[in-house]
Amino acid sequence: MKPWWLLALLWPSLALAENGYDPDPWEDFNRRVFAFNEVMDEYVARPLAVGYQAVTPKDVDDSVTHFFSNLEDVIVIINDLGQLKFGQAASDTARFLVNSTVGFFGVFDVATHIGLPKHDEDFGQTLGYWGVGTGPYIMLPILGPSTLRDGAGDVIGTVSGVDYLSIPDTNAKKLAAYGVRNIDVRAGLLASEGLITGDRYTFVRSFYLQRREFLVNDGESSDNWEEDSWDDDVWVDDEWDDSLEDDIDREAFEQ
Description:
Elements (H helix, E strand, L loop, with lengths): L2 H14 L10 H29 L2 H25 L3 H16 L8 H4 L9 H7 L7 E4 L3 E4 H13 L10 H19 L10 H17 L7 H4 L10 H10 L3 H4 L1
Antiparallel strand pairs: 1-2
């Protein structure tokens, strides 16, 4: 299915959430999927991440993270242009070229050290930039938290053929790349597990929605989430958010 057809189908639902509707109208379903994901994480993803971290030297682990981050800068550049951020697009293009050459295909993050910072842009943010509403929150099997808008953005990214999974020429190689990338991301989350308190589902939902709003608005986050009754049991202050950002890779929530 072409992404624009998907957007046409989803647009009414995307608009509803912008008119005062509960951002999580499918909570019962989402909680069941979340419970399934928790089981998969406990018995599959986390043990693999722990083993990966135990046998992988930190320098190698960092190199794997940098390699995939560099590949994903292609998507960042496209969405820079899609949001009319031409100066940032030039910076990110230079970053990609430097890391792909001097940084040996992104294994070393040389660009950051010469003043070319990493940016975080994706198709979901670009849709938000052009006024597409967030839409209901949805928990996807294996893939984790999302919204209808972010899901549509993921479809666009996949169909466009610009993500890192478009590079391998066989399904086996694609699966291997996907597995390594996500194990690396999960390993990066191990140190932050203790930061999750209270109801895990509500905590993850609150963090995801607030973080996505922060990204779409380029750091100008509203206080609307704190006013919603469904989020009264979760509180995230600036100190906690800064700490979590240091430990958590964004892809852990957008894969």
